[in-house]
Amino acid sequence: MRIHQLSPLDAVASLKSTAAGLCCAEVERRLHEYGRNEVEKVVRAPVWLRFIKEFTTFFSLILWVAAGLAFFADWSDPGQDMAKVGYAIVTVILVSGLFSFWQEYRVEQTLAALRKLLPQQAQVLREGKVTRVPAEQLVPGDIVHLEQGDKIPADCRLIEAFGARVNNAAVTGESLPKMREAGPSEADNLIDSKNIVLAGTLMVSGQAKVVVFATGVHTEFGKIAHLTQTAGEEVSPLRKEIAHLSRLTAILAVLIGLLFFSLGWMIGIPFWKAFIFAIGIIVAMVPEGLLPTLTLALVLATQRMAKRNVLIRYLPSVETLGSTTVICTDKTGTLTQGNMMVRRLYLGKTLDSPAGVKEKKGLVDLYQPFFLTAWMCHDLKETGGHGKSAFLGDPMEVALVEMARDLGSGLPVYPRLDEIAFDADRMRLSTVHQAPEGAVLYCKGAPESVLPLCQHVIIDGEIQLLDIEIKASIVQAQDAMAYQGLRVLAFACRKLAVGYDRERLEEDLVFVGLAGLEDPPRPEVPEALRKCQEAGIKVIMVTGDHPGTATAIAREIGMVKSDNPTIITGEQLRRFSSIQLQLALDAQEVIFARVVADQKMRIVEALKKKRHIVAVTGDGVNDAPALKAAHIGIAMGIAGTDVAKEAADMVLLDDNFASIVNAIEEGRAVFENIRKFLTYVLVHNVAELIPYLGFLLFKIPLALTPIQALSIDMGSDTLAALGLGIERPDPQIMRRPPRPQSERLMNWPLAFRAYLFLGLIEAAAAMAAFFFVLNGAGWKYGQNLAAQDPVYMQATTACLSTIIVMQIVNVFLCRSATRSVFSTGFLGNSLIILGVISEIAILLLINYTPWGNSFLGTAPIGEEVWGFVIPFAAAMFILEELRKWLARKRLLNPSSRSDV
């Protein structure tokens, strides 16, 4: 037989222990055999190795090679300023690598949080003496004393219990405290047994003596910790897309660079010129500023989300939210307020709300015994003094006492004389108090336990005989409350004679009423769920609570509208095959109730197999594995444990489901904004590439040097691109379905617009300005110019300046792929305005300061060049507005969808 099915004495004996506890020598032996009572750390790669790995990704390796070649070129052929190019590329690698490395510490932080949850000290009986020892020194067979407020240090079997109630929410997800007793259990599942307490949970009330049967990694807590540490980190869709884009652009850049290097060498271009040309091709085509700009954009997005009560711990999760197709949400504290509240009262013959009772004059006085029973009969601790008191203990009892205080103002406090503690068999609590008229017993508990003890009932302030008809009406009222998902308690009282018989206290009681309690839904949740439905996002409740309670709340908030939703309990889920679970998840309305840690993660994995992007909410230790396995884990900031917060990608500061919907809206905007600044960046990449192609194919001077190209990528464009990254969400963004996983960040419409339309216009303007300066100085085709020739330096400056001017126009064009600039506006985004100002400042710096001239190899250009460039900028504006007009006409078809 398993330990929970044994008697207390047999349970102790099965662990080779005694009523006096273990001897010190046996403790040492078991400590050596079973290990310390702590969460073991999974062996991982050294920190230094993980640090180096971040700088050896495919994208980084390409840039390392480019930087190395630049330094080699500078060493072999000094005077070409290739060292500056090398240093700039190394800076890009360092910024990107450091950004990625910080997340590697998340597992260690999770482990530290797990350890904090276990108590540091425990009261242990060893060799007949009670002593306090560090919790990590507990071993199987130790006898431990537990009191109200204690954290359970290990998995234990009760051998004595006095009013013991345990809150298992951190491990099982069950929101209500559970009674615990020492007798043998017939339950099959050890976790469901009433004589078992689990490591990491909390003693809400009472006292207990327990024997430890599992420590460290062998506890349920330890198993969850192991799952959390070993669960694979889900790579965000954004990281996948950036990796794909990085590989694509890097491979294209290297292949084109090598191709034109070979062609140049074959047609007689000197080796070093061809070599510098190849590096220039790589620099021009690889968007070096993409990752740093992306990082900054995500950081600013997280700041916006923080104002909407969402704290982002992992930057790529910002965008992941936008592609979410399913949210698996907890119930308690997320969909609900996390506080028990009395919702319905039945007083004699009236079923009403507490507010309705309060409005009916005289009703409170007529049913004073009910309010006295709710006020007196509890096991709470009071702090702060009467009148300004706060109550600590079972949330359900707190709700009842506060209800009585609010409705029955001026209730007296009678001294307690006696108590018959609550236990699982009796399902009720009785207390005896000294009232002015003598001793009075107050009783509350499950209706099926209290009602059979009642012989009388109070109706309209009068005590009447409890006949069959009245009892039927009470049961009917109880059923009506239960159907609403309320937890129903019955209340009774009795005046006691002098010298009462304690064995017969709970007899001939007077029934005084029923109370229905619930954890009420948050008022914002129904509207948030409606938005999810409009946005094509499925919401699934996954809770440790009772299926009836879960279903009632789901109906109240609008998550369930049909008569027959799919309700799956943890016991049923345990018998499901993977295919059965995936088929069950196809149902329109799904609720999972009474689930445990590994089952929640199994649900997440099944949804991922169905190719969903999954967001999961949670607050307890039991939620940590699922939070980590999901595409995005969402922890509760108020009620959440440290473990859940460290395992999650984001934290809800207000524990409110509605904040998730706000975050999804921001996440969708982030993806669209990334496309906007990607378009913006790729346009100038074309303008940087064309000068190198002209240099090779037409034997003209190189119109843009590598260091000048990098000055655009990492300098002038950064703030403006960042401004595109923080554009406000489109008002219609939550009325569109989630983005398909197959949809690439850079799709064909984006590539056509960036490379073959805007990019070619900008490149044509830049090359035209280059030749405008050369021709004005009398240059003839075929004439070679030295790198330090003032005419050549002015011409490259004109090319560089034209690209920057065109990008100033382009930033406003890129605010939308379809809406006119006159619709999106020129103002409204302060960072874009700041970016434009910075681009103008950089233009002046590189043109008219000795430092800019020296560093970038530029020379001042005259007013006639600016006059030449402006018409090209105007033409780009007009042509793009025409393209947008044609695109809007095409999108009048309702089935069409904007790219951005």
UniProtKB/TrEMBL annotation:
The chain crosses the membrane at residues 55-73, 85-102, 248-268, 274-301, 754-779, 791-814, 826-845, 865-882. Its main location: membrane. Keywords: ATP-binding, Cell membrane, Magnesium, Membrane, Nucleotide-binding, Phosphoprotein, Translocase, Transmembrane, Transmembrane helix. Residues 2-75 form the Cation-transporting P-type ATPase N-terminal domain. One of its GO terms (cellular component) is plasma membrane. InterPro entries: ATPase_P-typ_cation-transptr_C, ATPase_P-typ_cation-transptr_N, ATPase_P-typ_cyto_dom_N, ATPase_P-typ_P_site, ATPase_P-typ_TM_dom_sf, ATPase_P-typ_transduc_dom_A_sf, ATPase_P-type_domA, Cation_transp_ATPase_P-type. The keyword RNA-binding does not apply. Pfam families: Cation_ATPase (PF13246), Cation_ATPase_C (PF00689), Cation_ATPase_N (PF00690), E1-E2_ATPase (PF00122), Hydrolase_3 (PF08282). One of its GO terms (molecular function) is P-type ion transporter activity. It is a multi-pass membrane protein. SUPFAM superfamilies: Calcium ATPase, transduction domain A, Calcium ATPase, transmembrane domain M, HAD-like, Metal cation-transporting ATPase, ATP-binding domain N. One of its GO terms (biological process) is proton transmembrane transport. Belongs to the cation transport ATPase (P-type) (TC 3.A.3) family. Type IIA subfamily. This is ATPase. It comes from Nitrosospira lacus.
